[in-house]
Amino acid sequence: AQKITQTQPGMFVQEKEAVTLDCTYDTSDPSYGLFWYKQPSSGEMIFLIYQGSYDQQNATEGRYSLNFQKARKSANLVISASQLGDSAMYFCAMREGVVQGAQKLVFGQGTRLTINP
Amino acid sequence: DTGVSQDPRHKITKRGQNVTFRCDPISEHNRLYWYRQTLGQGPEFLTYFQNEAQLEKSRLLSDRFSAERPKGSFSTLEIQRTEQGDSAMYLCASSSWGNQPQHFGDGTRLSIL
After folding, report:
1. What is the pLDDT of residues B83-102, one digit of tens each?
2. Residues on chain B touching A107 (C-beta within 8 angstroms)
């Protein structure tokens, strides 16, 4: 079963608008972490934001915030005041458990975000 | 603070040849990961080291693949008898203890002729 689902293959947004990228996940482990990464056309994976399953508040990091709805198993990324440089692929990823060895990230298919001037 | 470094950036080789990639993690990170990413897909986990110990391997890591981290610092990923299906971006990442995020290198793009 797919563990991370990103249902938006592509999104087009006007510069300066806010954008929400969807991510749903599936796990039976009570302890997990959720991550968002940005991958520009140059290829590097850039860490954006992290949300732990036990965190009480939604994570924020500058213009990035994570809308974490635990009961719905969703962890949507919100980018405020989008900029042309935000155009990239965005990946949602999950890490299950905190036990030794359970450190791998499972990634979604990604969403290609294009910011129009 | 230098990031994760991977070498080479690009590798073109003929089918059947062996290739080796190198990854230098962020110096204070004791965890090191290898992922593979094919076009249009998210990265897929291959293997994970904590210090010099290889603690987890994906079923994607066939017998032709081997990874080492002999002194708990840099790591190498070797692919023997390369096949067309091995063409991909190979990403290395490192992290420190706890729930710290994994930081990725720029990757090595492998093309099999």
Report:
1. 999 999 999 999 987 778 99
2. 42-44
